[in-house]
Every structure is written in structure tokens, then in C-alpha cells.
Amino acid sequence: MRGEGGLYRCGTPRFGGLIGDGTQTGHNIGLGPGIAIGRSSRIDSGATLTARIVPAQSAISAPHTAETRIRQRRLRPSQTP
């Protein structure tokens, strides 16, 4: 694996990934081979990552989560409280 600090040799020909202690993950995430997630990180639902090193205490979110909008529902006159 290549990171900012140079090459990291894992010592095995088959390397899946590493997830650091205390990392929280949402549902429906995709983690591919070569991923290393630092300790105490947070991965939001729907994120997909592969072949990278994520520093400790990082927050990873999927692009679609930033586009989420919340709006009030319009009630029909017969539904008014």
C-alpha cells in the first residue's frame, strides 16, 4: 500500500483491509481491497472506498448525503389536524 509516508508492507500476498479500533460505520458501505481506516473514524452510510489510507479520526461521507434535503410535507385540507 502507498500512503503519504511512503510504502507500507503488510507482509502477506493477500491483503483485504484494515479498520481501526473505535471506527463507526453506517449501513450499506463498500470497502474494497487495500483500504486502511485509521482509529476512531466515522464512515457514513452509502460510502464506497478502495485502495487508500484514511487518517485516524476522519469522517467519510458519501456525496449524496450532502445533497439530502428536508422539506415539509403539504397536507391536503382533509388531513389538517
Structure overview:
The protein has 81 residues and is mainly beta. The chain has 1 helix and 10 strands, in the order ββββββββββα. Helices cover 5% and strands 27% of the residues. It has a 3-stranded parallel β-sheet with strand order 3-6-9, with no helix packed on it. Strands 4-7-10 form a 3-stranded parallel β-sheet, with no helix packed on it. Strands 1-2 form a two-stranded antiparallel ribbon. A hairpin with a 2-residue loop joins β1 and β2 (6-7). The radius of gyration is 19 Å and the shape is elongated.
Return residue spans where pLDDT drops below 50 for at least 5 consecutive residues: none
Count of DSSP-assigned helices: 1
Give the DSSP E fraction (strand runs of 2 or more residues): 25-35%
Mean pLDDT: 78
Strand order, main sheet: write it out: 3-6-9
Structural class: mainly beta
